[in-house]
Amino acid sequence: MAHPTVAVLERHLHLYRRLWRASVFSSFILPVLFLISIGIGVGGYVGQIQGVDYLAWIVPGVMASTAFQMAIGESTYSVLGDFKWVRAYHAMRATPVEIHDMVAGWMLYILLRVEIAAVVFLGVTGLFGALHSPWAAVTPLIAALVAVAAAAPVTAFAASIDNDSYFALLFRFFMIPSTLFAGVFFPVDQLPPVILPLAWLSPLWHGVELSRAATLGVAPPWPAAVHVGCLALFAVAGLAWAMAAFRKRLQD
Amino acid sequence: MIYARGLIKRFGDFTAVDGIDLDVAPGEAFGFLGPNGAGKSSTMRMISCVSMPTAGELRILGMDPVREGPRIRARLGVCPQLDNLDPDLNVRENLTTYARYFGLSKSEARSRAQNLLEFVQLQEKATSTVEPLSGGMKRRLTIARSLINNPDLVLLDEPTTGLDPQARHLLWERLFRLKQQGTTLVLTTHYMDEAEQLCDRLVVMDGGRIAAEGSPRSLIETHSTPEVVELRFTDEVDYTGKLEGIGRVDPLPDRILLYTDDGDAAVNEVHRRGLTPSSVLVRRSSLEDVFLQLTGRTLVD
């Protein structure tokens, strides 16, 4: 017998089978274009950073930020739409599927999407010779943690609003600043001390530092457990918020 | 199947359902008849275990919806008022993905979907997406979807609202077949003809309360007369007094209703009194008249 969570995941995968073409560019091609243009183009001027080629230095950052942006992008219109236009969650509500199945099924779907992109990206960057440590093999797990830390609160946000124009605020005031000050393209210690705390608050920064430590085989700026803990905090709080938001939206 | 005593649903200060008692037996086709805002849909949502009662006692299939919601929902078929099909999935996938929510195996989901597509006469549309289907086809698909788990109890919230007459008749015919197979049906409607066609027993709801209960026939016998004469006059004169004694007179904004045992005799008496209505219609009493009697208002405003 299929678990209700799996049934929810299957529904999302069924839809993805129809709509996957639209996501190929952002999931697989765009990250590689970033590597070529910034890693090789800008890298030519930068030379080495912290003892490695600039390309190798930004690979883990681009990977984590791809996971971050995919997780956020997927969790906006799709979630709101399944409440507001498709009413797919209302349909599930009339079956044995429970709120936690809806949230878990959705998170598994996001994870699957992010993992496929992360593994493909890891393979491509391996060909570039940009992975300097066997620890690089754990980066897909870090990407998974980043994905849930970002997708859970954004899913909750999308389930709480009634108008898609709020997403513009989310992108402008959360996603873009989180990406700019997360150490993807330059070390955050270059930042003025007043802005530095922004990086600490960004779940992406923790993911970037962990990934970089893994691909370069160096120690992260904070103890790894603290970075993981920060990401886990985002994930757990986000999941709790998402459950509450789904329950509120479906209850009457 | 359904047992309710003193069931109440409040939304803030607004009381949508104001203390109703219900008993629905297996195999019965039970209806809620009433205008928009009477509390029909709120009652339905409580029965389908997606909305919790504010007060009162409710048992569905002998279980408590607050504690055993998923177990009850596993045995219900719900056809909601607003279609919530997946527009990007095709007709068959809409059934099979829904079947999986009930834990059915993939092969079982496929074979049930096939049978149900035949039952609602959509087998030719199996691989079409939902978007281009007509309103009647979408509704038939939603009904097929609600039957995917072989439910003991099927809940239909305004199943034919917004459909054209042909689509409605096809739907009624399918629902009638279901009823003949012994499925317990509970439906809400604000169409008296739908209630008369499908329901063995119904309650008339108004303002969150049950105004009357019985079979369509017994409700008409109890609350109305066998026949009704509808008179229309072109001038603005008040004819109420001039019609006195012919039957019970009920003046509406656009026409006057005469409740009587013998319509033709009543029409003869109208003419004998020298009155010249612009149109005269003699018809049998309907649930619409029952509703008018009970609440003083028409069903569809």
- The level of helicity of chain B is 25-40%
- Oligomer state equals heterodimer
Structural class of chain A: mainly alpha
Can you tell me the overall shape of chain B? globular
Number of E strands of chain A: 2
Shape of chain A: globular
The count of β-strands of chain B is: 13
Structurally, the number of domains of chain A stands at 1
Q: Describe the largest sheet of chain A.
A: 2 strands, antiparallel
Largest interface: A-B, 28 and 31 residues
Strand order of the largest sheet of chain A: 1-2
Please tell me the CATH architecture of the largest domain in chain B by its name. Answer: 3-Layer(aba) Sandwich
Average of per-residue pLDDT values of chain A: 93
| Helical proportion of chain A, percent range | over 70%
Class of secondary structure makeup of chain B: alpha/beta
Kindly report the name of the CATH homologous superfamily of the largest domain in chain B.
Answer: P-loop containing nucleotide triphosphate hydrolases
And the CATH topology of the largest domain in chain B? Rossmann fold
Strand content of chain B: 25-35%
Q: Sheet with the most strands of chain B? A: 6 strands, mixed
Encode the helix/strand succession of chain A as letters: HHEEHHHHHHHHH
Number of separate helices of chain B: 10
How does this structure look, described?
Chain A: It is a multi-pass membrane protein. Chain A: InterPro entries: ABC2_TM (IPR013525), ABC2_TM_bact-type (IPR047817), ABC_2_transport (IPR000412), Nod_factor_ABC_transporter (IPR051784). Chain A: One of its GO terms (biological process) is response to antibiotic. Chain A: Belongs to the ABC-2 integral membrane protein family. Chain A: It is found in: Cell membrane; Membrane. Chain B: One of its GO terms (molecular function) is ATP binding. The complex is a heterodimer of chains A (252) and B (301). Chain A has a two-stranded antiparallel sheet with strand order 1-2. In chain A, strand 1 (48-49) and strand 2 (52-53) form a beta hairpin. The mean pLDDT of chain A is 93. Chain A has 252 residues and is mostly helical. Chain A has eleven helices and two strands. Chain A has one domain (4-10, 23-250). In chain A, helix 7 (139-160) runs antiparallel to helix 10 (203-216). With 301 residues, chain B is an alpha/beta fold. Chain B has two domains: 2-215, P-loop containing nucleotide triphosphate hydrolases (Rossmann fold, 3-Layer(aba) Sandwich); 225-284, YebC, transcriptional regulation domain (Alpha-Beta Plaits). Chain B is built from ten helices and 13 strands. Chain B has helices at residues 40-47, 69-73, 91-101, 106-119, 135-146, 165-180, 192-198, 216-223, 263-272, 287-295; strands at 2-11, 14-24, 29-33, 55-60, 76-79, 153-157, 184-189, 201-206, 209-214, 227-232, 248-251, 256-260, 279-284. In chain B, the strands form three sheets. Chain B has a six-stranded mixed beta sheet, sandwiched between helices. In chain B, strands 11-12-10-13 form a four-stranded antiparallel beta sheet, with helices on one face. A three-stranded antiparallel beta sheet of chain B has the order 2-1-4, covered by helices on one side. Chain B is globular, with a radius of gyration of 22 Å. Chain A binds chain B through residues 1-4, 6-8, 10-11, 14-15, 18-19, 86-88, 90-98, 250-252, and chain B through 11, 45, 48, 50-52, 70-71, 73-74, 76, 78, 80, 82-89, 93, 97-98, 100-105, 149.
